[in-house]
Amino acid sequence: MHSIWLIARREYLERVRTKAFIVSTILIPLLLGGGFAFSILKGGRAKSAAHIAVVSADHQLALDLQDELSSGKHSQMTVEVLNDGPTTRKTLDGELASGDLNAYLWVTPADAPGGRPTFSFTTGSKADVLTQGTVESALRTVLIREQLNHRGMVAHDVDALLQPIALDTSQQGKHASGIAAYVGVVVMFLLMYMVVMLYGMNVARSIIEEKTSRVFEVLLSTITAEQMLAGKILGVGAVGLTQILIWLTTAVVLGSSSLAAAITGSGAQVSLSFKQVIFFILYFIFGYLLYSSIAAALGAMVNAEQELQQLNMFLVMPLAACMFALTPVVTNPDSTFARIMSLIPFCSPLIMYLRISMGHPQAWEIALSFVLMTITIYAILWVASRIYRVGVLMYGKRPNLPEILRWLKYS
Amino acid sequence: MPIVELQQVRKVYDTKVAVDNISFTIEPGTMFGLLGPNGSGKTSSIRMMIGITVPDSGSVSLFNKPFERASLKRVGYLPEERGLYKKMKVMDQLIFLGQLHGLDAITASKRAHAWCERMQITEAIPKKTEELSKGMQQKIQFIAALLHDPDLIIMDEPFSGLDPVNATLLQDTLIELRQQGKAVLFSTHRMDQVERMCDSICLISNGRVVLSGAMREIKSRYPVNRVHMTYTGDEAFLHHQVVASVKHYNGHAEIILRDSPDTAGEAQVLLAEAVARGTRISKFELMEPTLEEIFIEKVGGNHADFDLSSRPATVAAGDTLNA
């Protein structure tokens, strides 16, 4: 035990003293939080400023549309109204190609009177979803308004009808607005992803460093490989925990004082509940143990960091799968898909944590996720410690799979 | 009471037999040379001695007890590939390694300072290891192996890469430790050092012991038929019939006498011949083959990867005359 403590302490002290630790402690939340605040600010106010043309025989419709698009709530487009002429389409295509025009809308009048005209929308770049969406909703508004006017409704009443609805999403016990809660959860999700990844990789790097500098030989002459592995994982993990505690404390302090809201000015204040903090720490510990054990085995197998890059996928792939699951789980945190994902030990730290923050997982589900993770960690550690014990003394070429399987049998 | 006892130790990696039934003992207060070409199984043997690996068969005893990890607190190990944390400060590093060997931080620090003074590297104490020269790092490693005052000191190539002044400093330290009753095992390619320092040796090749025993006893197995002489003047005496072969360098000759029941008498004849021709002689020594010659005889012929680079360069430059 004493040896494990010594190894862990050295690892901890050497790491906490580095500039990299201080920089990442400050920078990671700044980048994550800043990036999110930025995207919300941009996303909330995004307005299309495209330059489009409307070709329509129905002049009134075209003018209404121009009015809606150029001064509407979500758009500041420049809209030209054109009449259908023999060369119009050609001219417009030319302008589209040269980039003078972003898109044009071609309105073909309805065959029967009272029917809907057909619309064709041609854009210069397919990716401009924003413009397309804006034009669509503007068209709908204009058409509905026209129809209602036809049926004798006063313009004032029509506008009142078309008012967007404000939905109050505040939940019981959670005073943050829906968008703020969402931001908080996603930031924590990304943070968890980053720390699990970062500290897993740190374990691998630290093993490679000891391997290339051959410190192993000296250490192994007094302590066992298992003690070294345990000390290293504990030491690096303690560094991660320290960093997380600094972040969470800061977040709680800032969140409660509404300072964050004042700084970002977006009203998107990140508030954390006590439950979120506790489970973040718990899931970090388990996630870190899981991924750092894999990383330890990878580190012991290779001789240089470049070689590690090639094996990285074993670490990245399960985590990346969680990233892809983010959207479906966020939209419906208690769906069958989310429930299954959250119980896979490699995904639990991210997905179950997400569900705890956003959905309503059963207590037994949470307990089961910890049980499954514990079993998996134990199994991985068993394999990793064997690979580690043999791997750290092997230099030269990287072992292939049959060789690694043989290592498991060595005493 | 032997400090180390290996009995019929064998270790196989996959299909390669790294160590094949090796046995030897190391007594306290002696210096033991573990010799052999590269890849002959020296490091594998040492690793089993200190529990880094476990033998497939045979037994290892340390301090007269079957191997147990607790014994390792009494062993100091300097590996062939030097290993220190590059980014760590020298003193932190020494204290850390000392603590791993069971010292408390204060004792470790005190001893580390004393050793740094003795090794003349006090100026390195506040620095990071990566800032030090290779020789200095080697001394740090040397200190790390001795900090906990081990009774068994295992040094794999302790003098490689050191200048003569520092090599002598380390050598004298090891000799002093032997006088204090410690057992020192060291492996090296430098046969002159082994010959000067070791009380007994074990020479292994391809994982097998080819020669082992006390240095004097091994030497006595060989005839005293070598003459080393230094001279100026006429060299014609080297063609005398008692000379079987000779390597000669500028004013120095290493002669092998022809087989004879009375090599001492033949040497006398050679000396008389030289004196008669007016050659001025400043050294004339009759001796057994050097350890280097024995080494090459035992393993040189069938070993392609024998490390020539660590032999003194002058030998390679010499030419052979046949009388």
Question: Nutshell version of this structure?
Answer:
The complex is a heterodimer of chains A (411) and B (323). Chain A is mainly α and 411 residues long.
Please explain how this structure is put together.
The complex is a heterodimer of chains A (411) and B (323). Chain A contains 17 helices and four strands. In chain A, helix 3 links the parallel strand 1 (51-56) and strand 2. The model of chain A is unreliable at 170-176 (pLDDT under 50). Chain A is 69% helix and 6% strand. With 411 residues, chain A is mainly α. In chain A, 37% of the residues are buried. Chain A folds into two domains: 2-41 and 177-407, no CATH class; 48-161, D-Maltodextrin-Binding Protein, domain 2 (3-Layer(aba) Sandwich), CATH 3.40.190. In chain A, helix 2 (19-45) packs across helix 9, helix 7 packs parallel to helix 11 and helix 11 (274-301) packs parallel to helix 16 (363-391). Chain A has helices at residues 2-16, 19-45, 59-71, 88-98, 129-150, 155-161, 178-212, 215-220, 225-256, 259-264, 274-301, 305-311, 313-331, 336-343, 348-358, 363-391, 401-407; strands at 51-56, 78-82, 103-108, 118-123. Chain A has a four-stranded mixed sheet with strand order 2-1-3-4, sandwiched between helices. In chain B, strand 9 and strand 10 (208-214) form a beta hairpin. By secondary structure, chain B is an alpha/beta fold. Chain B has helices at residues 42-49, 90-100, 105-118, 134-146, 164-179, 191-197, 215-220, 263-276, 291-300, 313-317, and strands at 4-13, 16-26, 31-35, 57-62, 65-66, 75-78, 152-156, 183-187, 200-205, 208-214, 226-232, 243-249, 252-257, 280-287, 319-321. Residues 303-323 of chain B have low confidence and may be disordered. The N and C termini of chain B lie far apart (51 Å). The radius of gyration of chain B is 23 Å and the shape is globular. In chain B, the strands form three sheets. Chain B has a six-stranded mixed sheet, with helices on both faces. Chain B has a five-stranded antiparallel sheet with strand order 14-11-13-12-15. Chain B has two domains: 4-219, P-loop containing nucleotide triphosphate hydrolases (Rossmann fold, 3-Layer(aba) Sandwich); 221-321, Alpha-Beta Plaits. In chain B, 32% of the residues lie in helices and 28% in strands. Chain A binds chain B through residues 3, 6-7, 10, 14, 209-210, 213-224, 393, 406, 411, and chain B through 14, 47, 50-54, 69, 72-73, 75, 77, 79, 81-88, 96-97, 99-101, 141, 144-145.
